[in-house]
């Protein structure tokens, strides 16, 4: 919407491609058309009340116009090549004009009384502007010269002028023309308001405002096309239709001179007196190359128009639908469609699987609700059936020699008939399920077509357009006779029977005939077929259809129902699946069949080419590269998981570009090639335990032999080859490397070959193939897909004989292929079958040994020595770091998936959680006696990306870590967090791994981006390189004696080498997943020494942190705790505020609101908040009880106002660890003498007391506070281990101590 003054633009409605809009000033509604959605919409001008007026029967609506007086809506459709009209609510609709309408675009109305004209532009081969009355009569061309691309039109109701682009204006009769604006780029929409002309330009995506005095304003707006303004254009308010719809039952269309025409919606005609509209009881429906049209002898109505070729047509009269075929060269517009007789409810019935030569025959079984059709592929023709309003579709007959064309059905006689246009033209009959084929006629036929059944006398009629003949015969082939031969109207095409009349159409002379001589309609272009829409043609009474068993409830059949002659019961069939024992239901039983993927679908097919039922329904899975990857991935997984649950078609989504796939049915794992990652991978069927098996150049096809433990894959790299390895990637060998260019699916270019499993005895099985892609072997046959032929084929696996086409002319390129058969997956024993071979994740053949933390979907810990390896803990989530305590025989680990730091003894006992929250993105772990240090991303302000930690328990007591942030470095700090420094800052990118050589006082570190291992002194000096440029992605490193050990993410290995030279490098183990942290367990890796934390002078209840140099230590408490000196022990207790009560008196103490004390309920859990000294409770729970027994709200405590009569709510009740200010406020004791006025009255900063503190800490003293009362005594000592600052209060001694 655009405000004119000021020019303000705001969106009202959004759509995909809105090209035209108009408004109704009476209801304040706007109407618009969206060409992408193929719909016409309406809504109020504020955007509310949006609803679809028409959602079918539209193609490209380029202009709409509202008759605000007669309450009608007009629009043009450039694809349907017509102008239509409907009521504003869409209830009634009619094609107004279709003759000589080629490319209509602009449309405007003048519905005012005595005018009632419509104008439209047409930019077809003869560009012009036309005028007609609003009922479609009195049509004439008003502008046809010097006009090339007329788009928008506008009416100036005041001056009675028509404006059109290239912007000119003229009188409404076109007599005079004046150029208003010239040399425009691409004008589209026009409108007039007062003295201004507004128009849009598509090239510049801009709208213009033009004053008739030649002044122009412009405003940019991307995508603007058709401007419409809520103006005074609606000046006229009455015409012949403005009152009570002009007395018309459906549509009232005004004409000049205050006249009108009553019209009926499509499929109806006016009653003799014109007072009502009556539905046509009987009419003919014909198809042409451009439209579907209905005829009732004199009136004509159009059902549906399009720009593709309409061929065969039939009807389902009971439901009111007309069915037709479209055979475009584009698959998007090819198939079977349906719509109601008014053009509404347009639906594509058969959207896929249509052959290159299209649908050539169509017949409706209106009793069983089955649709029969012939489907012509490149070299084969199918006769198929489809249950109406379902997806149950089945091939009845498939032939490469015969060419079934026109088809007819008799539900009463229970037969199916069709013509054959093959080498031997004929007419055949079969039962409705396609069985018992019988040739009825094969002589004196050249091109039989137009087959139809006379349901009244049980005769079969057909036409022959080569012999110019119409013939008939009985349904058993007898009583054959010629009805019409030759004439002035040759080449009959379609044929229909109505009572005693024969209707046929001719494509050459384009005539439709009734009986012998009467012409119903001439001058029709390229008629294709005809059918009758009459209830008598399709009777539904049980006695008239031979008591057809499929008449009621589909004969109780789950999918398809067929009526068989001389049988009372129905014959049920399955379009996909197998008919179960009850004879009506379809199930999916594990039998033998083919399954193959295409670019968009997953398909199945019987091994017997004569069995046309599908084992499973075709599944559409998506499109594009990702979908193709998913199809390839599912193809083997299908036979294991989705066999009995077809809807479960997803396994793993985070794949890059998988090409080939193989299923290990013994160990329930999937192996696939990924040419983006350039490797062969393995993954569980649930998407877990994904691992890299082997790197490759350009891996494609893959196959697995789980019983012998081998994996084979093709590689398109240079040179192309076929390789073999164990299921774990070991013993990798190239078995074929010559004579290959693009081996795919274990087949070679334009041929299929075979060899032994070692690559020997190579021989060619099939040659001269077009483009074979996927291949599989079953019993004595090979099956393959071919991209050029778009088909599936079969031949003998020994010599290529017995070549058979199983499927051809598929809509999409066929990809991978497999045979689902129980015998294809040999049952064999495997060490991995029982308890997964003792492995927590992946069990494969091989002898890998490692000691590390490993990550899959679930992590586990492994412990090994020189002789053996064993799992010591399974079921973890994502363990990224390990550490051990040799002296307590404990193992520590950091599980970021579970958000925990845990420990247990080496024998698996005493497992406990040390930290269960706030570990964030912790990655490193180091242990020194009792303290456990962890480094987390939550400290990002200091350490952007900390990774590995290592502590030095010997003097001088340092903590080391790596940081791979923007400026990577290796850092060092005291074990109490002081004296932080970066000791190595150069030649680092991703310093991941770090360890310490305690014997030689060296640090060893690796960079996973620069691929080296270096060592240096403990202060970062004297840096040297041990291994250069050959470490793909080191994650962790450990050291013992002369050897350094590391884990590598890229190679999935654990390796060792000499710690100084890198020599004697050895792979100690191959893994199927990424190994994480690694440690060598030995007493030398944790040497013991004296430290201040073991002194008897001080005992810390929680943390004892050693300062640099190892001579001092500090007691620290966890967050939200404070330290209390109890003798020589520093006890950490909960840090409770003045309005909280501390429960208990131990390290697990918690704080609760103070009014919970003595409230009659035990909130602490240990009863400490409800001692026996509590006075009797009078107040309700949740209230504070004054000392005199009165009650008040907890929020009134210590608020400076006395709420209790005895003032007990304002008593100074500061808790231990808090200082009572002179004004009664409580502040933490550590705030005293910190040079900050925390009390607000200065009583926490008494100068005469705090001056020593200021001097000792070099703190500038604050301004002297005013005199106030306080209770504080303090002393300062600089001699450890005495207290640095002691604060006394009436309750306890609180402190912050340093040693």
Task: Explain how this protein is built.
There is one protein chain. The chain is mostly beta strands and 1299 residues long. The chain is built from two helices and 107 strands. Strands 3-4-5-6 form a four-stranded antiparallel beta sheet, with no helix packed on it. The protein has a four-stranded antiparallel beta sheet with strand order 7-8-9-10, with no helix packed on it. Strands 11-12-13-14 form a four-stranded antiparallel beta sheet, with no helix packed on it. A hairpin with a 4-residue loop joins strand 42 and strand 43 (459-464). The longest helix is centred in the middle third of the chain and has 17 residues, at 624-640. It is a single-pass type I membrane protein. It is found in: Membrane, Coated pit; Membrane. Its main location: membrane.
Kindly state the percentage of residues in helix: under 10%
* 3D shape: extended
Q: Kindly report the spatial arrangement of strands forming the biggest sheet.
A: 3-4-5-6
Mean pLDDT: 76
The low-confidence parts are: 204-208, 211-234, 298-302, 624-651, 845-852, 855-860, 929-945, 1263-1299
State the distance separating the first and last CA atoms.
76 Å
* Helical segment count: 2
Structural class: mainly beta
Percent strand:
35-45%
Radius of gyration, taken over Cα atoms and rounded to an integer in Å = 45 Å
Number of strands: 107
Largest sheet composition: 4 strands, antiparallel
GO biological process, one term: endocytosis
Domain EGF-like: 240-278, 549-587, 1092-1133, 1178-1215
GO cellular component, one term: plasma membrane
Subcellular location: Membrane, Coated pit; Membrane
């Amino acid at each position: 919407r655009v405000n004119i003054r000021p020019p303000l633009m705001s969106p009202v409605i959004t759509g995909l491609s809105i090209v035209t809009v108009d408004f109704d000033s009476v209801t304040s509604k706007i109407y618009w058309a969206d060409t992408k959605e193929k719909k016409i919409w309406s809504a109020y001008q504020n955007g509310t009340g949006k609803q679809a007026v028409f959602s079918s029967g539209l193609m490209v609506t380029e202009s709409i116009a509202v008759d605000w007086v007669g309450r009608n809506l007009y629009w043009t459709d450039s694809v349907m090549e017509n102008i239509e009209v409907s009521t504003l609510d869409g209830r009634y609709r009619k094609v107004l004009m279709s003759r000589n309408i080629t490319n209509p675009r602009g449309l405007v109305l003048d519905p005012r009384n005595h005018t009632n004209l419509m104008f439209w532009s047409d930019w077809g081969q003869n560009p012009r502007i036309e005028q007609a009355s609003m009922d479609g009569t009195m049509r004439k061309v008003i502008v046809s010269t010097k006009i090339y691309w007329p788009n928008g039109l506008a009416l100036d109701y005041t001056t009675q002028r028509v404006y059109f682009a290239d912007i000119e204006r003229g009188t409404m009769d076109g007599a005079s023309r004046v150029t208003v604006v010239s040399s425009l780029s691409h004008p589209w929409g026009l409108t007039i308001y007062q003295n201004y002309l507004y128009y849009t330009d598509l090239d510049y995506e801009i709208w213009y405002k033009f004053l008739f005095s030649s002044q122009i304003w412009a405003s940019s707006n991307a995508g603007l096309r058709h401007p419409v303004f809520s103006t005074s254009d609606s000046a006229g308010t009455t015409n012949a239709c403005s009152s009570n719809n002009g007395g018309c039952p459906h549509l009232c269309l005004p004409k000049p001179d205050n006249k009108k025409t009553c019209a009926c919606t499509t499929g109806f005609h006016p009653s003799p007196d014109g007072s009502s509209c009556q539905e046509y009881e009987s009419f003919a429906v014909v198809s042409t190359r451009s439209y579907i049209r209905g005829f009732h002898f004199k009136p004509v109505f159009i059902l549906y128009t399009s720009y593709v070729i309409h061929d065969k047509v039939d009807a389902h009269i009971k439901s009111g639908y007309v069915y037709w075929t479209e055979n475009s060269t584009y698959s998007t517009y090819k198939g079977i469609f349906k719509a109601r007789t008014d053009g509404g409810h347009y639906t594509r019935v058969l959207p896929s699987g249509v052959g290159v030569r299209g649908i050539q025959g169509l017949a409706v079984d209106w009793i069983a609700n089955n649709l029969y059709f012939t489907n012509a592929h490149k070299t084969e023709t199918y006769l198929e059936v489809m249950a109406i309003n379902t997806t149950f579709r089945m091939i009845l007959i498939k032939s490469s020699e015969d060419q079934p064309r026109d088809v007819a059905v008799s539900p009463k006689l229970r037969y199916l008939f069709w013509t054959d246009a093959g080498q031997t033209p004929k007419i055949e009959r079969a039962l409705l399920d396609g069985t018992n084929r019988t040739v009825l006629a094969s002589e004196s036929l050249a091109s039989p077509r137009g087959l139809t059944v006379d349901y009244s006398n049980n005769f079969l009629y057909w036409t022959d357009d080569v012999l110019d003949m119409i013939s008939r015969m009985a349904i058993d082939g007898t009583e054959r006779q010629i009805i019409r031969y030759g004439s002035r109207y040759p080449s009959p095409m379609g044929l229909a029977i109505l009572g005693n009349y024969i209707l046929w159409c001719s494509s050459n002379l384009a005539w439709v005939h009734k009986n012998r001589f009467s012409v119903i309609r001439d001058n029709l272009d390229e008629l294709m077929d005809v059918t009758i829409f009459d209830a008598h043609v399709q009777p539904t009474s049980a006695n008239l259809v031979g008591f057809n068993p499929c008449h009621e409830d589909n004969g109780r059949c789950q999918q398809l129902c067929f009526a068989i002659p001389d049988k009372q019961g129905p014959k049920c069939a399955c379009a996909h699946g197998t008919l179960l024992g009850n004879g009506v239901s379809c199930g999916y039983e594990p039998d033998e069949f083919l399954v193959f993927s295409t670019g968009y679908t997953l398909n199945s097919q019987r091994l017997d080419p004569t069995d046309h039922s599908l084992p499973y329904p075709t599944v559409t899975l998506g499109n594009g590269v990702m979908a193709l990857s998913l199809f390839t991935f599912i193809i083997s997984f299908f036979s294991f998981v989705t066999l009995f649950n077809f809807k479960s078609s997803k396994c793993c989504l985070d794949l890059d570009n998988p090409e080939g796939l193989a299923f290990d049915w013994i160990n329930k794992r999937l192996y696939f090639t990924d040419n983006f990652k350039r490797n062969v991978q393995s993954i569980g069927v649930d998407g877990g335990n994904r691992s890299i098996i082997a790197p490759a150049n350009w891996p494609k096809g893959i196959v697995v032999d789980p019983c012998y433990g081998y994996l084979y894959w093709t590689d398109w790299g240079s040179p192309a080859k076929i390789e073999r390895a164990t299921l774990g990637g070991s013993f990798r060998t190239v078995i074929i490397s010559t004579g290959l260019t693009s081996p795919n699916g274990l087949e070679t270019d334009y041929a299929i070959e075979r060899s032994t499993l070692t690559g020997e005895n190579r021989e060619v099985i099939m040659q001269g193939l077009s483009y074979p892609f996927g291949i599989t072997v079953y019993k004595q046959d090979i099956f393959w897909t071919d991209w050029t032929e778009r088909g599936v084929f079969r031949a003998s696996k020994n010599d290529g004989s017995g070549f058979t086409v199983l499927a051809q002319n598929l809509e999409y390129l066929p990809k991978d292929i497999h045979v689902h058969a129980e015998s294809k997956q040999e049952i064999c024993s495997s060490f991995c079958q029982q308890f997964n071979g003792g492995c927590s994740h992946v069990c494969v053949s091989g002898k890998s040994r490692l000691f590390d933390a490993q990550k899959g979907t679930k992590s586990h810990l492994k412990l090994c020595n020189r002789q053996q390896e064993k799992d010591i803990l399974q079921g973890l989530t994502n363990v990224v770091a390990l550490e051990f305590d040799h002296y307590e025989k404990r193992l520590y680990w950091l599980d970021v998936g579970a958000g925990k730091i845990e420990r247990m003894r080496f024998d698996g006992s005493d497992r406990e959680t040390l930290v269960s929250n706030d570990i964030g993105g912790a990655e490193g772990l180091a242990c020194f006696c009792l303290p456990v240090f962890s480094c987390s991303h939550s400290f990002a302000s200091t350490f952007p990306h900390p990774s590995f930690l290592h502590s030095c328990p010997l003097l001088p007591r340092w903590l080391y870590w790596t940081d791979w942030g923007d400026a990577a470095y290796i850092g060092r700090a005291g074990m109490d967090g002081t004296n932080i420094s970066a000791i190595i800052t150069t030649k680092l990118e991703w310093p991941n791994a770090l360890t310490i050589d305690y014997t030689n006082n060296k640090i060893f570190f690796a960079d996973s981006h620069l691929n080296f291992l270096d060592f240096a002194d403990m202060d970062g000096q004297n840096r040297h390189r041990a291994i250069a440029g050959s470490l793909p992605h080191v994650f962790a490193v450990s050291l013992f004696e002369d050897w350094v050990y590391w884990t590598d993410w890229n190679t999935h290995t654990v390796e060792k080498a000499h710690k100084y030279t890198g020599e004697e490098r050895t792979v100690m183990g191959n893994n199927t997943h990424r190994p994480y942290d690694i440690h060598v367990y030995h007493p030398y890796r944790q040497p013991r020494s004296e430290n201040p934390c073991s002194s008897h002078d001080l005992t810390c209840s929680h943390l004892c942190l050693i300062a640099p140099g190892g001579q001092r230590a500090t007691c620290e408490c966890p967050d939200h705790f404070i330290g209390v000196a109890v003798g020589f022990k520093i006890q950490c207790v909960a840090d409770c505020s003045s309005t909280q009560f501390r429960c208990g008196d131990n390290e697990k103490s918690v704080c609760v609101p103070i009014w919970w004390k003595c409230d009659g309920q035990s909130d602490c859990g240990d009863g400490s908040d409800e001692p026996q000294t509590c006075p009797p409770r009078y107040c309700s729970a949740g209230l504070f009880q004054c000392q005199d027994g009165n009650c008040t709200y907890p929020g009134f405590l210590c608020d400076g106002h006395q709420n209790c009569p005895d003032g007990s709510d304002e008593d100074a009740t500061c808790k231990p660890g808090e200082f009572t200010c002179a004004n009664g406020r409580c502040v933490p004791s550590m705030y005293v003498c910190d040079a900050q006025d925390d009390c607000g009255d200065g009583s926490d900063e008494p100068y005469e007391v705090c001056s020593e503190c200021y001097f000792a800490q070099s703190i500038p003293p604050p301004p002297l506070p005013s005199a106030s009362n306080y209770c504080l005594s303090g002393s300062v000592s600089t001699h450890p281990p005495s207290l640095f600052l002691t604060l006394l209060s009436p309750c306890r001694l609180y402190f912050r101590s340093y040693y």
